[in-house]
Amino acid sequence: MAKGRGRVLILRHPALVRVTHWINLVCLTLLLASGLQIFNAHPALYWGNKSDFERPFLAMTGELGADGQGHGFLTVYGHRFETTGLFGASNDAYGELEPRGFPAWATIPSYQDLAAGRAWHFFFAWALVLNGLAYLLYGAASGHFRLDLWPTRRDVGALPHTIWEHLRLHFPKGEAARHYNPLQKLSYALVIFVLLPLLVVAGLTLSPQMDINYPFLLDLFGGRQSARSVHFICAALLLLFVFVHVVMVLVSGVWNNLRSMVTGRYRLEDER
Amino acid sequence: MKPRIGRRSVLVGLASLPLAACDRVTESQWGKRILGSVDALNRRLQRWLAGPDRLAREYAEADISPQFKPNGNTDPGTDAYRALAANQFADYRLEIAGLVERPASLSLAELKAMPARTQITRHDCVEGWSCVGKWTGARLAPLLDRVGVKPEARYVLFRCADSFAGLFGTAEPYYESIDLEDARHEQTILAYALNGQTLPIENGAPLRLRVERQLGYKMAKYVMRIELVADLAGVGGGKGGYWEDHGYAWYAGI
After folding, report:
1. Residue A248: phi, psi to the nearest 5?
2. ipTM at complex level
3. Which CATH architecture describes the domain A8-42+105-268?
């Protein structure tokens, strides 16, 4: 047991980063689930300014099959997949199959209620933005971004090696674990400075009044329906990031990682 | 033998707890109040950012949607409405009443003689889709000047010919309301034509409101009567519109 178990505890995450991290988790979870509720009101995505109802590039549909039963389908760029139970048709609270985009367990509220989904979404959108601003101001003022997050030239050079090490589930130990590794820096920076801002701005473009206030938003995305699709795709990419992030937390020392995001303390393991 | 609870059902049960909690919050009065508290914030901030005069983007003829999707009610279906439609709405009268100096009753011909505006705009449905259409109609602001809005009036209320069926089979009439800032906006019109043709029944004939700064549910179809009011509390469910009475926000600029 003693082998590879270091005694050095370092302060890895300052209090503000810890608090905003967990608030962010709550906001993103509720925004995702209420966002899927909103998507379910019209489970189809388009490119451009208006909806070409005959040609969505992605659609979830519930259809009556030749067997007299309901079936769910996901269609992406003309490729059709039967997804009964997950996309297009899934069970309601009473176990009855109903046509709906995403299933009841993924949406807030669980039943179809667009008005309530919007209320949840806008409330936690404000929470996400205010929480994010607090984090951004802190990160810029404290040097956290400059010192800890911003990838250096050396980081970029070391990237292939880091990716290889991650794939072998070898993670930095000892002194090297004092800092984010190049892959962490790159993925965190992409999420914080590109993905989340894009998600928020694309969401704002869906508001007709915001399009009047800032007409360039429409040009930025190439129309409101494109903005809606970008908003959706950003959410999907964010979910993918969270999935990989959680896997990495699990395989690289789950208790040490969790403690560092709760109390701030991270134990440096001996180098082998 | 004792009934056994499977591991799977325990896991599914635990996982659905937060979701059930969210449903409870959704249905509670305090939950509605807290979640809805940002509506006023959205309205104030968005309007402050723009000011009252800026116009919604207008598009080219080539951008017009091949078909303007009819949504909600597509035919009021009442005897009174059918009789009006059978006669191409020659007997239609738009009543303007409430807190006005000179209540009016206007025929379609009289409305068409009022200052008009044609605009190709994007219609955003609360469900998420968008259509582009060319609307022609009487601007609301000159109509309000014609009847003389009393100083205590704050909202313009639109009463419609269509209704949705309530839970007990009662008819819940469609109605909507906007404030005077939206009512006096240059692009706020009572449309009688869509894409250069007489407004079809499915899109709201004979008269449909266009409020281009907000979502589609604000744009009442089959408008029969306009009332100027000081307060929305006494009308319908008291929230200012049919969909508002069913949980949607009164401010639909977002």
Report:
1. -65, -40
2. 0.93
3. Up-down Bundle (1.20)
